[in-house]
Write a structure and sequence with these properties.
By secondary structure, this protein is mostly helical. Among the domains are: about 10-70, Arc Repressor Mutant, subunit A (Orthogonal Bundle); about 90-140, no CATH class. The chain has helices at about 10-20, 25-40, 45-50, 55-70, 90-105, 115-125, 130-140, 155-165. Helix 2 packs across helix 4 (about 55-70) and helix 3 packs across helix 4 (about 55-70). The termini are far apart. About 10% of the residues are buried.
Length: about 170
């Protein structure tokens, strides 16, 4: 089995101080893993994961990141949210773009999402996926309007009567 060892980036007391100063539970658990590995040399990942109630792979990943990045290993950790480096447009830019399309949409000049996708691709300067357009609609409160399935003045009783009394016959496909 693999013996866990942390590089001496921080002393035991410094790691304990960092662990106790955390306000986020995930950060606390990560520092707890580092503290446990650093103070219990020779313990295996199975033993530490059993004591702390985490998966063995979590112990390996945390120790590997700590050894690689040193004492600033938790500063890059972000969960959720939009990451501007991967996004086509910032949220504020999306908002302005959707507001510019609002008049065309309300007047009925935009019929399908393809119209907006083409405009977004021109604005961004590169192709975007269909999912990006639907997510764009969702983020800014746009909804898909479709025609109703039944006419509001339709006579349901007459339709049911017609269904019951109409002849059933087979017709060829050609």
């Amino acid at each position: 089995m693999k013996i866990l060892k942390t590089f001496p980036h921080l002393t035991d007391e410094s790691v304990k101080t960092m662990m106790n100063s955390q306000t986020d539970i995930r950060a606390f658990k990560d520092w707890q893993i580092i503290y446990s590995v650093q103070t219990n040399f020779g313990k295996q990942a199975e033993e530490i994961s059993c004591i702390l109630g985490v998966k063995k792979s979590k112990v390996y990943n945390v120790v590997q990141l700590y050894n690689k990045h040193g004492k600033t290993w938790r500063t890059y950790d972000q969960w959720g949210g939009r990451r501007d480096a991967r996004c086509h447009l910032r949220l504020e830019d999306e908002k302005l773009f959707m507001q510019s399309l609002e008049d065309d949409a309300l007047s009925g000049n935009i019929l399908t999402f393809r119209h907006i996708k083409d405009k977004v691709e021109v604005h961004v300067g590169k192709p975007v996926s269909d999912d990006y357009i639907w997510d764009l609609f969702s983020r800014h409160g746009w909804s898909k309007k479709v025609p109703r399935q039944h006419h509001p003045k339709a006579d349901q009783a007459a339709q049911e009567e017609y269904k019951k009394n109409s002849k059933k016959m087979w017709l060829p496909n050609h």
